[in-house]
Amino acid sequence: MTFIDWLFPTIAPCDAAEPWQFGFQDAATPIMQGIMDLHHDIFFFLILIWVFVLWILVRALWHFHYQTNPIPQRIVHGTTIEILWTIFPSIILMFIAIPSFALLYSMDEVVVDPAITIKAIGHQWYRTYEYSDYNSSDEQSLTFDSYTIPEDDPEWGQSRLLEVDNRVVVPAKTHLRIIVTSADVPHSWAVPSSGVKCDAIPGRLNQTSILVPREGVYYGQCSEIRGTNHAFMPIVVEAVSRKDYGSRVSNQLSGEA
Fold first, then answer.
1. In Å, how far are 54, 172, 202 from 77, measured between CA atoms?
2. Which of 108, 132, 159 is the last residue of a domain?
3. Which DSSP category does 202 fall into?
4. Which of 27, 119, 123, 162 is a Cys-bridge partner for 33, taking CB atoms 3.0 to 4.6 Å apart?
């Protein structure tokens, strides 16, 4: 728990974009938290470099201005400064490269034995989800289409152009594998608060892994521009408790929901 969480305990994480928001959405997965931490670390070095370069620029303008120094200073060669401006950038790059490579490999890591596998198929302009673990020989499967809620037909509390008629319900604190593909044109399956963006390519299966540590509703959109209705393919992932997830799956399979 951070100091802000302790000081303002009523503030809940927001898993959707806010009006006039600057920066990332609140992290909902360890991967997204790692992306945010890496961004803040790199931004720290960026501020230091920016201040240093600005100081050099102002100093050069001052010392070589014709009114301040009619006879400008002459700097022909400096071995020490050349060694320093070679070593220090190398050290900074090393401090940036080590955590970035660690995060990159963790993002590409695929869970060998995930608890649940969900297949997301992109269409023009909706998605079909298939819970592959619940397919059986009697042709009973958990498959449904997910359409966006029309702009003139939202219910109270639903976000405009972000809500769908059928959410992707997953259990919290569980390793998930998402298989992404497309049935027509390239799409993308992206949930910013989860740090996930996976392209949906026709004839190809791409996969990514998700571990959602807390319950909540997470919103995403198609981030691959492909046609006029590309912006009307939202994604809604609802993480619930394992007990609630089991009851919802049972009701879905039995045709009660």
1. 22, 62, 59
2. 108
3. B
4. 27
